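Notes to self after the Tuesday call (sharing in case useful).
The group wants a holo model before anyone commits to mutagenesis around the pocket. I volunteered. Ligand is iron/sulfur cluster. Logging inputs and output together so the record is complete.
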Amino acid sequence: MPSNLAQLANDDELTADMLAQYAYCPRRFHLMYVQGRWADNVYTEQGRNVHRRVDQLDHVLPDPAGPDRQEEAPPDHAGDDPPEIVRSVPLASAELGLTAKLDLVSAADDEAVPVETKRGRAPRNEQRSYEPERVQLMAQGLLLREHGYRCDHGVLYFAGSRTRVNVPFVPELEARTRELIDQARLASKSHTMPPPLDDSPKCPGCSLAGICLPDETRTLTRPEQPMAQPDVRRLFPVRDDALPLYIQEQGAVVDSAVITAINTGMVNAASFQRSRAACILTDTGRKAFIRAYEARLDKLVTHPVFGYRCSWRSIVRLQARMLARWLTGDLPEYEGMTTR
Ligand code: SF4
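Result:
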């Protein structure tokens, strides 16, 4: 989990990582930094592993004015000094309201080049990189400039393909980065969740897709919303201005597990112990019923609104999240889940 998840609750400062998340998707930024939500997937795990090595080393940048460096140079030295490599460099700018911990900086005299390590292979697009990565690197370049360095390009290093990609800090990239810094700061103060990206290739790889529910949200916010099933039980909310609330079909999980347990003989008369006062499950009977209940939760069904197959276990989580979305106003209506 990113260590800066709750940072915006305390101050106005953005990190370059947060800026990259905003450039990737404003809704993801909102979920992470306004709501404090997080979930890992294989990509976030890989990214953390790639950064673990550089994070273990802690250095500071040399003085860009360079007097110490000149004193250290051998008197008969001819030619350029080799660049100095420093890692895990923390920088901050009050003017930009921005902080960053730079993976690696190559510095020679007053010139510095930030190097940001990324998991995976370099993309095969024209710029061999994606905008969030370039914006994050440009933000690091702005911080280096504010600390007195000349900085006209950065490098993205893709660990999966061992590829170095030069990113020139052209005026368009700088303007875009400054624009996104302003937008991200505004977004960090808003409690309205931005809409999901529209059919974006980013969503399948996004670790927060299961929380964001992009497809489900789009389905339910389209003008032609699906109507609730007429035989669904209705609960009426206490607020007059609220919509009726539909709940899960009664008996879909627990009752079904009981019937299956009895029909298959998993639970039978020997599973109970009787006394004058009660009839209760034995330990063996209780374990058999829990097995039947777990099997029911793992059973796949087709969701009647979204049309995909998923387990009852996933559906319970999905419906709870959609109910929360409806309560917070992100969805116009709550659609209950029924099997008929
Ligand atoms: S699933 Fe898509 S819309 Fe939702 S947060 Fe991730 S990238 Fe954004």
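Two things stood out.
Residues 25, 27-28, 31, 196-197, 200, 202-203, 206, 208-209, 212, 214 surround iron/sulfur cluster (CB under 6 Å).
The radius of gyration is 28 Å.
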